[in-house]
Amino acid sequence: MSAAHDGACHCGGVRFRAHGAPKFVSACHCESCRRTTGGAFSTWVGFSSSDVEWSGDSPYFHASSMGVKRGFCKSCGTPLTYQSEKWPGETHFLIGVFKDPSPFTPRSDYMIEERLHWVKPVAEK
Ligand SMILES: [Zn+2]
Ligand SMILES: [Zn+2]
Fold it and tell me: What values do phi and psi take at 51, rounded to 5?
């Protein structure tokens, strides 16, 4: 295990450390991400759940659709994670909850057909 990536919600109650390199970094333009994060699109950094250590408060989960749960801090409301039966054993983190998000660059745009018309694909090709 090389790099460790620390992160937390805004109030610092929920904290985590993800080990190693992410499996992917991807922007998602779907409506569900928009509604659950409040952002025009979201950028996700995916790790194996077994490479993630949690500390502090436990995240709460919202079932945003069938087989999908989105983790957030119940104290400050920061959205943190996405987990889906479609990607078993993975925890996807919103890029903004890492203490240092600068090592992560999106390599793909997901659900681009649902993007807001003014949003350009963000992935570096
Ligand atoms: Zn919090
Ligand atoms: Zn999405």
Answer: -95, 10
